[in-house]
Structure formats: C-alpha cells, structure tokens
Amino acid sequence: MISRRQFNQSLVAVAFGGLSKHLMATPNGLGSVAKNTGYGALISDPNGVLDLPEGFSYQIISQLGEVMSDGREVPDRADGMGCFYKDDERVVLVRNHELSPPIAGSSEEVKDKSAAAQAYDVGQHGNALPGGTSNIVYNLKTGKTEQQHMSLIGTVRNCSGGITPWGSWLTCEESTLTPSAANQKHHGFVFEVPSDSNGLVEPLPLKAMGRFNHEAACIDPRTGIVYLTEDRDDSLLYRFIPKQKGKLSAGGKLQALAIKGKPHADTRNWEKRQLVVGDTVFAEWIDLDNVESPDDDLRLRGHKAGAALFARGEGIHWANQELFFCCTSGGSKKLGQIMQYQPSEFEGTDKEQQAPGKLTLYVESPHKASFNFGDNLTVAPDGQLIVCEDQYTTIVDNHLKGVTTKGETYDFARIRLQTEPAGACFSPDGSVLFVNLYSPSKTLAIRGPWQHLAG
User: Fold this and answer.
1) Is 299 within 8 Å of 315 (Cβ atoms)?
2) Quick check: is 339 in a domain?
3) What Cα–Cα distance (Å) separates residue 350 from each residue in 203, 241, 381?
4) I want to staple 16 with a disulfide (CB 3.0 to 4.6 A). Which of 99, 269, 317, 319 is the partner?
5) In 3D, which of 19, 4, 26 has the Cα closest to residue 195?
6) Is residue 7 one of the residues assigned to a domain?
7) Which of 289, 245, 284 has its CA nearest to residue 264?
8) In angstroms, rounded to a whole number, what is the distance separating the alpha carbons of residues 259 and 307?
9) Which of 139, 3, 32 is nearest to 363 (CA)?
10) DSSP character for 128?
C-alpha cells in the first residue's frame, strides 16, 4: 500500500494540476462576473443552510456542541482547515477554532479543566485558553464521521493555516496578545499539528516563523519554503526558509516580499494605483530581524526596510508551481484582491536574482456582486479557485465564489446563515469539498459533478 505522503503528493498533483492553466491565462483585470460559466444557477436550500447548483448536495458532518470521541464538545468558530489522506477510505480534517480567552474578571471559564496540563497557555483560573484545533476522521465511502477529538488547545484566535507535504497542519494565531490577567504567555505564533494525532499534541510555537497577526501559510514542496500571510490593513507577505527542509522546529530565516525597483510599494491601490491587474512585477526578499518582537512591529520595520504593503493578507494556497493569496480589503473599492506568486527557479538561494520570483495582481473586485471580501481559498479539481467570502452585513450574502482562469467570478454556493464560510479544502481525490460555517460552527461535506463546469 502506498504511504500517506505518496498518496497526497500524487493526488494533489492530479487534482491541482489544472492550475498550470493560470500560468497561460491573462486575467481580464476587472473581476467581472462570468457568463455561461460556473456550475449553474443556485437552488434554494429548504433547510436554510447552503444554496448549491443542481446536482450538488451537502452533509453536515460535525457541529457545535456535539460530544467528540475524547468526551469534549465541538468548539465554536470553526475557521481554517486542511484535509489529509488517512487510508483508502478515510481522510482526516484538522480544523481551527478562532477562540479568545475570557476577559479578565469575567465569570466565563473554559469548561475543560483537564486540558490545562497539555495547553500552551492558561487563563486566570488555571484553565486552558479555548483556541486550538480539532481533528475529524471522515469516511469518504460511507459518508460517516468516525472520530473527533481536540488536537491542540491553549492558543488564541487560530484563524487559518496550511497543510505540509509531510502530513501536518500549520495552525496560525491571529493575535499578538501579551501576558495579562487573562493569560500568561505571548501569542502570535504558528503551531504544527500532525494529522495522525490521537489526542492533544505538545504545543510548540514555531517562533522563528515570526510573531505577528498570522493568518495562513502554504509550503512549496520543492523547496520546503513556507509563505505566510498577515491579517492587517498594512500587512506584509512573508516567507520562511527553514534550516532543514521538512523540520520547521529547527529554525530558519524570515523574510518579507518587496517589489524589485519599487521599495515601499503599496499594492492595496486604495488611493493611488501602484499595481495593475494582469501586470507582473519581479520580487525580491528582505531579511527580517528580531522576529519575536513583543512590540508587534515586524510589519512596520519590514515596510520601512522596503517591503511591499498588502491589504489584509488572508487565505493562501499552494498549487502546482505557484501560490495564490487573498487581500481581503484590497483594491480601489476595498472589496478584495487575489494575488498570484510564481517562485524563482532558484527561490531562496544566492542565484535567486538571476530569475526573480513574479508577483501578479490576479483579481481586483469592482463591485460586490463580483467579489466581496475574499478570505480562505482553495483549488477545485479543474484548476479554478474556490474562495470564501467574509463580509458581515445586515443582509446575509456570503458566498463561495468560483474564479475562472480568466479571473472572472461566479457564485458556487450561497450561505443562508449570518456567518462566513471558511476552511474550504478538497479531499485528496478531489471528490469532496469540505467547508466550515464559522459560527455556530458546522463542518460540511459537499459532493457533486465537479467535472461539469459550464463554459
């Protein structure tokens, strides 16, 4: 039987191989709504949860308050998530929970006192902080959830993250909380959670990857380099070059992206357009120091040194030979952008400047119907992007948006609850799209005719 790593590498290459089409496509630059594309009109869900095209269906495989295999209850605020091969029938989902500690002096406490000894941090009453991750074992053949358990606890605002080629999940704290009456440790780190864990793992912060408002991460399997986003209005795009490929805890070098020939560039296009959709600019990377700074000033020092600004870097996804990431409030309308980065043939080496990496503004939304605050994103089996909208308004209107290889958008699904979709990820064989509904937390499995994309 093939190993999990072999299975993941082979099937991800097949399922995501279509992204090579992005390299040959020229985005239209307008984020226009696609015509005669997508999977068809959305059909109203009688249960008021998720509208999908004809032929697609969803199943709730986990939800808030369910008692898990370890006796704990499924936590709320399900956010970023990764999917991993377990065996010929089963996958493992590692799911973030974006929870914060109770306010100091509050009577609210984490119910699970037994987890304190295995927690990264505890609160004022000695209880584990509520943030962390949970694992779900799901049978693709039977459609049954076979096991659920907490896998990390004691962290803060675990927002998104990313899968590793060796079968673990990088969970990112979107917080720069410092010690206070409500907690004991500094936060703002990345933690690694093995997908095959059977319980709570040892909570080791990967401090060399920086202390900042982490959002998401992805890894180039060729080089082992980790790319990291930051959820701030004035965020940077980071990369971490590990000392030892595949062993992030051994340390490494943290850098920030700058645009070659344009130091201090502002890609947000809020007041003045500095990056045009479809145009490609060359990248260079700036070394960062004091990456564990308690002052939450890493992005400020990086930009001062020449790094480019991005508008709320959020979801990031590696596929084939490139990565895509969302800038949630980027663009002249502040409705969102999608960036594309193609690493150098010599990425992370002394020869890098001979053929620098390339940054492209792939999509910029001109109106809400096109694209409205993109957050987590993944890649469909045919190579198109699936993006989670994260806009809270008085009208329930968040979608899972599809993005064609021409940069056109379409509605794949509409969320009928006043919450955001998050953590979208496909099973390694490309048959099931898993997605979280943030709060009250629900994890859904979506099946359908993925091959029947119109247009």
Assistant:
1) no
2) no
3) 34, 13, 35
4) 319
5) 4
6) yes
7) 284
8) 7
9) 32
10) B
Whole-angstrom Cα distance, residue 80 to residue 67? 21
3-state helix, strand, coil in the chain (%, to 5): 10, 40, 50
The residue length of the chain stands at 455
Q: What is the distance of C-alpha 206 from the center of its chain?
A: 17
Task: Please report which residue ranges of 50-160 form alpha helices under DSSP H.
Answer: none
Provide the 8-state DSSP code for 305: T
Q: Which domain holds residue 383?
A: 1-63+367-455
Burial of 187-217, coded b for 16+ CB within 10 Å and e otherwise, reads bbbbbbbbbebeebbebebbebbbbbbbbbb
Q: Is residue 444 part of a domain?
A: yes
Amino acid present at 326: C
For residues 89 and 93, give the distance between their C-alpha atoms in angstroms, rounded to a whole number: 14
- Position 440 in a domain: yes
Going by the DSSP 8-state scheme, the letter that residue 179 receives in this structure is S
- Domains in the chain: how many in total? 1
**Residues 233-269 pLDDT 10s:** 999 999 999 999 999 999 999 999 999 999 999 999 9
**Each residue of 303-321: pLDDT tens digit?**
999 999 999 999 999 988 9
% of the chain surpassing 70 pLDDT: 88
Say if CB 226 and CB 217 are below 8 A apart. Answer: yes
Residue keyed to tokens 């020869």: 351
